[in-house]
C-alpha cells in the first residue's frame, strides 16, 4: 500500500539525490538497477552517521529491478545510500500526515445558540 517512488542506479550513481515519502504511512521505492553485473541497494538511515538503520533493501545485481516496501517514517529528513557504493547517496524527505486533512466537515464547528 501507499505511494510508489521511482529510483534508478546507472553509472554507479542514483538518478536522484533526494526522494520524498509521505509521513506515517508505508510506501514503496521501485528501484531499477541499470548497471549490468553491478550490485546495488538502497538503505535508509536516520542520518549520515549510519548509526540507526531504518530500512535496508536486498542487493540487486543489474540489470534488474525490485520494489522495496518502506515502513512508515516520522516526518523529517533522513539519509540514504547504496551499501556497496556509499558514494551513491542522498536524502529522504518525509513530510505530511497520513490521510485526511483539509477543512472540517460542515456543521462540526461550534456556532452560538440563538437566545
Give start-end ranges of low-pLDDT stretches.
98-115
Separation of the first and last Cα atoms? 51 Å
- How many beta-strand elements? 10
Percent in strands: 35-45%
**H/E element sequence:** EEEEEEEEEE
Largest beta sheet: strand ordering? 2-10-9-5-6
Identify the overall geometry. Answer: globular
Describe this structure in words.
With 115 residues, the protein is mainly β. 0% of the residues lie in helices and 43% in strands. The protein has strands at residues 4-9, 18-22, 27-33, 39-40, 43-45, 53-56, 60-61, 64-70, 76-81, 89-95. Strands 2-10-9-5-6 form a 5-stranded mixed β-sheet, with no helix packed on it. The radius of gyration is 19 Å and the shape is globular. Residues 98-115 have low confidence and may be disordered.
Question: What's the quick description here?
Answer:
By secondary structure, the chain is an all-beta fold.
Fill in the keyword field for this structure:
115 residues; mainly beta; three-stranded mixed β-sheet; 0% helix; disordered C terminus
SSE diagram, text form:
Layout: E1 4-9, E2 18-22, E3 27-33, E4 39-40, E5 43-45, E6 53-56, E7 60-61, E8 64-70, E9 76-81, E10 89-95
Parallel strand pairs: 1-3, 2-10
Antiparallel strand pairs: 3-8, 4-7, 5-6, 5-9, 9-10
